[in-house]
Structures are given as C-alpha cells and as structure tokens.
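Feature request, filed as a ticket because there's no other form

It would be nice if the structure record came with a short human-readable summary line next to the tokens. Right now we just get the raw output. Example of a typical job, pasted below so the devs can see what we mean:
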Amino acid sequence: MKRIIITSNDVMFLMGKSESYAQRLIKSIRDAYGKKKHQPISIRLFCDYMDLSYEEVFNTVNGIKDQSA
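Raw output as currently delivered:
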C-alpha cells in the first residue's frame, strides 16, 4: 500500500533539515490550511505549500524508483 501522508521524518529526509525544522514546517502547513493538530498532512498539501513536484515527493516517500532512467 502506498502512503499519502507525510511525516516529520519524511520532511527531514526530503529537505535535509533537523527534526525541529520539520515539525515547525508541518505546523505551518497545518495553520495555513486550517487543519487541527490531530489531522494529518497529505503529500499533496505538502507539495502545494512547498511548490514541489507531487510525483517526485510521492515516489521518494514511497521508495519508488524513477521509471524514466
């Protein structure tokens, strides 16, 4: 099954930043989209907020290798 939710560990890996940075970023995304603390952040919301390619982030989080290479 493929994941559609992003975690602070995923953000740490993707951005190469600290855990506290990742947690603050997820909190900022929650605030921007009006999500409550218990509501998860989807990869799509993360990508929209950070202006990143959904497919690239989704594939990286789910460990899918690039098919075009």
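Something like this underneath would help us a lot:
Strands lie at 5-6, 41-42.
The chain has a mean pLDDT of 94.
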